[in-house]
Amino acid sequence: MVILIVIFGALNILIGAFEVFDNGHSSGLRRGRIVLLFLSGCLAIVLAISQEHESGDVEHSQVRLEQKNDSLLRISNDQEKLLEDANKQILFRGQENIQMQHSIDSLRVELAPFVQMAKSKFPDLDVQEALKKLQVDVNEAKAMAEPNSLTKCNIEGKKLESGYGFQVDFSSVKDEPIGSFDFKVALRTNSSQRIMSVSPGNSAMMNIRTGTPSVDGHFCEVSFDLPGSGTPIIQVQLSGITDIQITGKKINGAFLISPEKLNRALSGVVEIPILTEKP
Question: Can you give the residue range of the structural domain that contains 99?
């Protein structure tokens, strides 16, 4: 476009020169010069419009380039953040593995004497089986070292003229004297039945202390000393079949006896296991 303007300008100069030499007598040259001036003006306008358009395209391209740069910067920042998080996770997992290995090493050190003891005591067994056998021996020794206590009871009952009578025969952990006993018999708070009496059932007893049932008949206790290694027996008389609970200082938990088990006890002996925790 600029070259065309230059060419038209050169032609315009040439025509002007011819006019000088022709002394202005040639009307064709004047018309040609006017046409060239007109075309030069048109080309100048077109050139200005073209430059303005190109300037707009450049600005638009710069905006798009800046947007792309911003997008690339955000993507780069996101990738850096992901890489940083991944490095943190790797570092955290590595620390966890180190701590776990330290725990395993500490456990091995602590178990080493027991492993050696198990191998010495059970040389014909592999390590795992020897450790299991050693654990059984340790549990038995622990049970022997603990104080003797009552772990279960057998209950048997019969219908009386007024209510029901039940005999509760307790069993202990070890066959050795326990000494003094203290039993507490209780009904549910919303029970419509009553405890008529609670008394010892052994033939040889000392220091018998039998309490009177509470006003609502829901609680009664008895205590006594039993010489020798025998196990205690108590007699419980109820006005009717209901839930009962038996606790005491030589009972590590509680015996809960349901109406269904009391009904079964009317026709035979029923074994009641102990609950390790008092309800």
Answer: 1-118
What average pLDDT does this structure show over 208-233?
88
Residue 137 counted as domain residue: no
Percent of the chain with pLDDT over 70: 72
Cα–Cα distance for residue pair 25/18, rounded to 1 Å = 10
Which DSSP string do the residues of 126-179 spell out, in sequence order?
-HHHHHHHHHHHHHHHHHHHSPP-EEEEEEEEEE-SSSEEEEEEEEESSSS--E
**Domain count within the chain:** 2
- The 3-state DSSP composition of the chain as helix, strand, coil percent (nearest 5) reads 50, 25, 25
The residue among 32, 27, 1, 2 whose CA lies nearest residue 14 is 32
In this predicted structure, what is the pLDDT of residue 136?
83
Contacts 24+ apart (CB under 8 A), 38-44: 39/8, 40/5, 40/8, 40/9, 40/12, 43/1, 43/4, 43/5, 43/8, 44/5
Backbone dihedral region for residue 62 (phi beyond 0: left; psi -120 to 50: alpha; all else: beta): alpha
For residue 57, tell me if it sits in a domain: yes
Q: 120 vs 111, 129, 144, CA distance in Å? A: 14, 13, 23
What CA–CA distances, in Å, run from 66 to 52, 58, 69, 138, 189? Answer: 21, 12, 5, 77, 82
C-alpha distances (whole Å) from 23 to each of 16, 29, 36 are 10, 11, 20
State the maximum Cα–Cα separation within the chain, in Å, rounded to a whole number: 166
Note whether residue 155 is domain-resident: yes
Assess whether 2 and 110 both reside in one domain.
yes
**More confident site: 264 or 225:** 264
Instruction: Select the more confidently predicted residue: 153 or 104.
Output: 153
Whole-number pLDDT of residue 87? 76
